[in-house]
Amino acid sequence: MAGWSYAQAQQAWQLKEEGYDFDEISVAMGVRATTAQKLVSRWEARLSIQAVWHHGLPVRIVNHLKENNIDSLESLQSVLAEGRLQKGMVPGIGAASIEQIRTWLESRNLKKECSEADKPVVVHLSPAMIEALDALAITEHEDRSEIIKRLILEADEHRKR
Asked: pLDDT digits over 57-100, tens only?
């Protein structure tokens, strides 16, 4: 790991957050899979990041869920499966929040499908930009990668006019 920068560790972590496995990260970064794992661990240690089950859900919704003892992915899925997460049943969680939760859960379950032509690319975004991208992903019902692809293609079409 000697010689690896924090920027490279952040790149590996970002790819992991996007859903890539360590083999895919290793190919994208030109390193071994074990090195990709170490880079991700290095970034997590630097930021003292602990994986949170609710990554991508709006903080307001997470807070209301926690206030109602829904404090894990498993408990959220259980409440949904049992029909106990409906408008008016959980204080602070209305129809719009329930729809956001369902969309978020669906996006977690989607398997990344990349053709051989697709290549992972790391994009450095500020925390505010990541928050905006996550909000866009929820409202547009698309994952981050698809939004970025679409925006790039739209910008390219606009440039060509």
From this structure: 888 898 899 899 998 888 998 998 898 888 888 888 998 999 99
The answer to whether the beta carbons of residues 120 and 24 sit under 8 Å apart is yes
**CA distance linking residue 128 with residue 112, whole number of Å:** 25
Say if residues 40 and 4 touch (Cβ distance below 8 Å). no
Torsions phi, psi for 95 (to 5 deg): -60, -45
What average pLDDT does the chain have? Answer: 82
List, for residues 112-161, the tens digit of each pLDDT value.
Answer: 444 445 666 777 888 888 888 888 888 877 777 778 888 888 888 888 88
How far is it, in rounded angstroms, from Cα 155 to Cα 90?
Answer: 42
pTM of the model: 0.42
Alpha-carbon span 76 to 79, nearest angstrom: 5
Provide the CB-side half-sphere exposure for 44 (13 A, CA).
15
Q: Residue ranges per domain, the chain?
A: 6-51+111-160, 59-109
CA distance 73 to 84: 15
